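Data availability (excerpt). The following record was deposited with the supplementary files.
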Amino acid sequence: MRVRRTIIAALLAAASITVGTLSYAAGQASSAPGPPRLEKPRDYTAHLVGHAHIDLAWLWRWEETVRDIAVQTFRGTLARMRRMPGLTFAQSQAAVYEAVEKTDPELFAEIRSRVREGTWLPVGGMWAEPDLNMPDGEALARQLLYGKRYFLEKFGVDVKVGWNPDSFGHNAQLPQLLTRAGITSYVFERCAPERTPFFWWEGKDASRVLAHVPVGWYLVSLQDGLSRLLAEPSGQTPVKDFLILYGEGDHGGGPRDSDLQAIERIKKDKSEPKLILARPEDFFRRVAAAWREIPVVKRELNFTFPACYTTQAAIKRNNRLAESLLLTAEKFSALAVQAGYRDYYPERDLDEAWKTVLRNQFHDILDGSSIGPVYEEAARTYRDVFERGRRALDFSLETIVNAIDTRGEGTPLVVFNPLFWPRTDAVETEVAVAEKPAAIRLLAADGAEVPVQVLERKEAGDKTTFRIIFTAADVPSFGYRIFRAVGADVAAGPGTAVVVEGNRLENEFFRVVFDPQTGWLRSVFDKRNGRDVLTGPGNVLEAIVDTPESMSAWDLGLKETVGRVGESGARVEVVEAGPVRAVVRATAPFRRSVFRQEVILQAGVARVDFRLALDWQERNLMIKAAFPVALHGGRAEFEIPFGSVTRPADGTEVPALRWIDLTDEAGDYGVSLLNDSKYGFDIMDNRLRMSVVHGATSPDPEADRGRHELAYALYAHRGDWAAGETLRRGAEFNNPLLARKAMVHGGTLPAATSFVSVAPDNVVLSALKKESGYYDRALIVRLYEAHGLAGEATVRFPWPVEFRETDLIERPLARGAQGQGRDFAVDLKPFEIRTFRVVKLSGR
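Predicted structure:
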């Protein structure tokens, strides 16, 4: 163990990481001069819980955690349990337990016996200790689903204590997620309210968990006693009971021999508080029973380490893509099984893919604060995720296509909508037609001409394959619409939906003028609302010096702006000017890096889209995409898991998911910035900015060097973000329409249909999946209210159903809503999340 500590210390030193600042060091609390000792120490009780915070990866890879760290930590802890009967040890993260179960069954069996004894304590209830700002709400729900079900199945333990002591902030919907999973208390450290070690943390829907910040961090050494440690927090609360997490972590360890010796010594020392070898659940019950005036905190618990929202862009992109793919695969797989189009649900593929995604959401992995080899390893695991997810999705869509009556002229093309409202959006796909026609035409099911733009043409044998783009109008809610590709002698007329003229692009929604020298947007005119969107150059990539004092993967040290990409000139060209889409590309070097920006207008789509590709070679520099919008004052809103929050427009770097929005102070007009893979943003006065990339130097000196691709969009709307349906636009941007070629055949399904829909607009159906359990066949439906409005939600199915409310772990609630019918209606409180088990009624 001493060798490992030496190695880690060397790595930390080489990476210029200050252990004290990170608070990763075991025994941190005892190494610095402490406050005065307690008065009347025997009036206080220290509830001691052994602990080893195990980073799934950080300065080492997951393989080392599995093969070495976890095994040796657990063996050492069990040995000390044998030496000190009654010693308790809390360990979270089902991913670690599963790895030990597979690699060392005998060790796992001994852990199981200690769990039955009540001294080894599974906590947290999550698959990992994830970042709690960047995962989608459904991903956090799966953290709890997979984590709690694992602990129930393997140990018979229904975890009640939430556990994220090292996560870099905590979103405002987390109290509700925890309580809906049966978790009643929460242990954490970072971003805590000052001088408030105990409090009820209240979520947006008024759900509450009893939260506690353990004394002295989460890796306390007991060698110097506890009296000084408790002196300061004892003056912050009338509670005389405190939770102490002692032991060594990060690279493993748990309770040390010196800790056991200190426990024996402290027990006999009347200048020290009383000791209990405790269980966290018992500790929280004692506090709640003893103190009736516990303060209430009603806000998100953020922010720290803002660079983590941007560092290691590849894993953040893979995370977003994987979340969207798996949720979509679940939806269509569940539908296909329920409707009888396929015989089984791809349980193993989806479960194994989700567990990999959840493990990679561990805070030091997803947040970009690990060494480079961690991201090489993660990239390999995502390839398996995408293979499993695409296999599940493709086969399910194929079985649905086989049930559609596709007879008619030409080659049928089925366009699926994975979201639960009708939408119009771009579709880019390939279609093959017989022989070698000069052109291709696209028809709607009723024979109406649909404008189509050919991007590429390839001939092979007696077939011609066209890569095309078109606008699919009014694709039904979670349903599909058929189009038909027909070979033609001449293409359809050019159409006038998208116009390119000089340095101007225009569709029915926007008139965009770009600078022919730089590629920046000079103006964006909103034709529907008759007003300019920008007050100055937009989509400008600003380069800002970023020199934090240390820990550049974690912290930002943003200083002066030292340049803007393209200001010395760029190669600007119109690369597409068809009836469906127009694209302007600006290519410019900046120092040693190269940027390629594209501005895109699409017929029928009320967004200005941007694609950015870059070859990044800089260090200690951040790039932000900036949009000065024509708004004054107003409200800045940021999407978070299962909702959104309002924050000050003060330029603070903050996390968000698929969109941010600024609405003017009158509330009658706003502008949203959508994205497909970014998480760091700031709004200052009237400037929306998205963090694109920065050149961190530690712990990975090569972080983000190389090629990147991303997409984002500007969306202007009447009213605020809710009235303007920004949430839907963000979801659409991240979940494109899906096109599948079909054979010509009869079928029972018509040319267009909606399988499931939900109303009203403020209600989001976030999950449609099969219930967990190989032999269980019901659907799970999850809804949440997004706009802060109480009301009734209605879900419509294609067949009569029976529904019953469950918790997040898919267990029926004794007093939950239930009923039956083709539609089911339930009340939702503002910001409420509710889950239902839905069974198709047979014979209907």
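Summary of structural features: The chain has five domains: 2-294, 308-391, 411-492+737-741, 499-724, 756-844.
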